Amino acid sequence: MIRFGEEICTNLDAALSREWLDTNGLGGFASGTVNGCNTRRYHGLLVAATKPPVGRFVLLSKLEETLIIDGRRYELGTNHYPGVVHPQGFHYLKQFRLDPFPTFTFRVDATEIEKTVFMVEGENTTVIQYRVKGEGARVQLEIRPLIAFRDYHSLTHENGALDGRIEQQPRQISVTPYGGLPALYLANNADDIESTGNWYRNFEYEVERERGLDFTEDLFNPCVLRFALNSKPNDAIVVSTEPHDVHAVEKYRQREISRRKDNVLRSPVGDDFVTSLAAAADQYIVSRGEQKSVIAGYHWFSDWGRDTMIALPGLTLPTRRYDVARSILRTFAQHVDQGMLPNRFPDAGETPEYNTVDATLWFFEAVRAYLAYTGDLAFVRDELYSVLNDIIAWHARGTRFGIKLDSAGLLNSGEPGVQLTWMDAKVGEWVVTPRRGKPVEIQALWYNAVCIMEDIAGRLGDEPARKRYNSMVALTKWSFNRLLWNEKGGYLYDVVNGGPPDASIRPNQIFAVSLPHSMLSPERAKRVVTIMEQHLLTPYGLRSLAPGDPQYRGRYTGDGDSRDGAYHQGTVWPWLMGPFITAYIKVNTGSESARRQAEAWLAPLKDHLTDAGLGHISEIFEGDAPHRPVGCIAQAWSVAELLRATVEDIYGIRPQDAAFSRGTTLNQAVKTGHRPKCSHIRGIDGASSSLHPGDSRHHPYGSNECSCGATAYGRVSKQAGVETDLIDIACLPLPTNDAGEAIKEGAFCSKMDRGDGLVIVAPEYNHGYNGLLKHVLDSCLKEYIHKAVGIVGVSAGPFGGARVIQNLLPVMRELGLVTIFWDVNFSTVQGSFDGNGKLLEPAYVRRIDKFLKELIWTSRTLRYGRENVPV
């Protein structure tokens, strides 16, 4: 939860610098500032996607709200007009929070009114609810909808073409201001509705002024709705492009709360930063027809091929949204043309644009990541393999914009006046960073793509293709090191094109280290990372150009031309922190110190979640300190790459592990009619059990690890139809020989034989697990077959036992146990319980319950299979 009190809410500038965002999975959104004053043309309570995920129109800009207490009027709104802020309702705003929706609490004397805003998934619908607190006073609320009905890139002004008539039906009004645009429905439970028809003139949007754009707008008010707040517990307005029943508001609310909780529970670890990013990730995933796509950023980007392919792994794979990843890959595969992925789907829904050399190459990396997480070779074979082969063929013989493989095995690209790489700013006919020739990251991506194709061809038994790709790989690697390595500088040239190479220090070379397939020796890779750290690393990401370069621009200000001129000339990009962390940890061999350093670098970005776009990561920051956030307030690849790098590199939960585990912490299995126990392992009576390596005398985590087991045991013991037993392996006799007969004599295997599942609570010991636990596990074999298992990872550090889980997962598979989807980690366990072993963090309880639900289902399903389905 993000929460601000009066210190922020009543501070005009502090509140205006913080913006909330809520989305609908169609490309539409609602957004504004903490105090309700619109500062952008993109702010509005209903920005509808009329051709999902594009064709976006600001239909309802805002609601002007007046609170009437015993006849006295209090304006709750805040607006910026020429030379004045009026009204100044922010003085009454006592709290703002995201919980999970934007919620505003106003206080006037002894009366409090709480306003909540949320969108409904899959609809161009926004719900606004009001609830009053306080007794005695007679409280009324007047609401004046202010509509814009214009393209979200534009502004509107008073005009005679607008049809201001409203149509009234029971509990619903509608207005259709212009032909060709949808009607706007306002379902409501107002006590009175009055038609008005007034223009509110000269709203000023301060951020648009700063951006050098038109910044004044007029808005139309068709009616006023009046609510007697004391007469019912909740008042509401459902704003939509389709009719709604206002009495269904609570159903919509609960459905959205449940859906958003599920997004949080998809977080692969219990880390607050990861959990926040997992929740944010959902807001970028949108529908395009029957398939899925990714909005590159809010407020003004549509779905871009490059951004989508870069963001796909982080947005979907650590959170196990494999169906979404598959749908996105299918969407773009269907639009491949002449061996190229679309660069952009225009807002108006016209023909896709193909001016990109790298989006197509990032497609290969997205496919690789999907395959690593899911092992879904059938999907790749049936729907993608021929497309991928065709892409390579087109690049080899040549496609649009001079994109063609040369005789040295390097990929050439570029034509005058065309921007093809991710550094794509263009002002009129001026391409700011043309990078024609052989850009360094394009060669790294090409090499990575061909290596991926060699691997896929081999796995599919396509030996001729595998050999062909193998020969291409060797030539590309040799040529790359010969032509792009800057021996004098100790780093890679940014571009080579036949003339003097471009020795600018830019972040593009980091991909030659971070991508799974690298052409650099370990020594050269480490030198590249060192240069990046010395010249480009900031608290919020990597600069796009070193400050010492004559072309460096440290400020991102002025009109559009000025800002575009600085866009890739020093501006900081947080998405690049992802590949930088990957590369840094890779060249430092995954050491603990490297992981901790990477985690420390992320601290300012964690704080940034409560600044600018709340709960999101901005598109860019200024190159010069203090690195002001600018550009889009919420960027898909910023969120995605930080999520991916944190999970895969800092926590060390790699894709290939996730592909097998489907969950990496609290796993447990249960027998029909029985109930699992866990605390101090002692029996497994036909149910799930917990293996707990030792009591507080035997491990460095003391009573905290016992508390982890006890917590899981307590939750599962409340599940209906389940029996449990508990085994403390410290109480088992030590094995007397390699076969472990003494343990078998202790009835462990017989209990496992009667059980339907197993929970292992394992603390991390030097990146591994207790030797006694290994002896216990090895003492049985046939007793495990086709039974569910779960692992509770316990760590005194920040990684929640992730590495002990990685070590245990292949053992589980070898023993024939089946791991479940969900997981729970106890990180910094010493702070998770009080002195009596009571859990201090309620979020763990929700994760455990989610986990247990699947555990019981899996155990029952497997038991049915063992008893009724012959193998």
Count the helices. How many?
A: 25
- Please list the strands of the largest sheet in the order they lie side by side: 1-9-10-11-12-19-16-15-14
Oligomeric state of the chains?
single chain
Gyration radius, rounded: 29 Å
Please provide the count of β strands: 44
* Distance between the ends: 48 Å
Low-confidence segments: 657-702, 742-746
Beta-strand content bin: 15-25%
Biggest sheet layout: 9 strands, antiparallel
- pLDDT averaged residue by residue: 88
Sum up the overall morphology in one term. globular
The proportion of residues forming helix, as a percent range, comes to: 25-40%
Strand-pairing-aware structural class: alpha+beta
Secondary-structure topology with pairs:
Blueprint: E1 2-4, H1 6-9, H2 12-16, E2 18-23, E3 29-33, E4 44-51, E5 54-69, E6 72-75, E7 78-81, E8 84-88, E9 93-98, E10 102-108, E11 111-119, E12 125-133, E13 139-151, E14 166-169, E15 172-175, E16 184-188, E17 192-204, H3 206-210, E18 216-228, E19 235-240, H4 249-265, H5 272-281, E20 285-288, E21 291-294, E22 297-298, H6 305-316, H7 322-333, H8 359-374, H9 377-397, E23 404-405, E24 411-412, E25 426-427, E26 430-431, E27 438-439, H10 440-459, H11 463-484, E28 485-486, E29 491-492, E30 495-496, H12 511-514, H13 522-535, E31 537-538, E32 541-543, H14 560-566, E33 572-573, H15 577-587, H16 592-601, H17 603-608, E34 612-613, E35 620-621, E36 629-630, E37 634-635, H18 636-650, H19 655-661, E38 681-682, E39 690-692, H20 703-716, E40 726-728, H21 741-745, H22 748-754, E41 757-763, H23 771-778, E42 787-794, H24 802-815, E43 817-819, E44 825-826, H25 842-868
Parallel strand pairs: 2-34, 39-40, 39-41, 41-42, 42-43, 42-44
Antiparallel strand pairs: 1-9, 2-3, 3-4, 4-5, 5-6, 5-13, 7-8, 9-10, 10-11, 11-12, 12-19, 13-18, 14-15, 15-16, 16-19, 17-18, 20-21, 22-37, 23-24, 25-26, 27-30, 28-29, 31-32, 32-33, 35-36, 38-40
Helix pairs in contact: 4-5, 5-18, 6-7, 6-8, 6-18, 7-8, 7-9, 8-9, 8-10, 8-19, 9-10, 10-11, 13-15, 15-18, 20-25
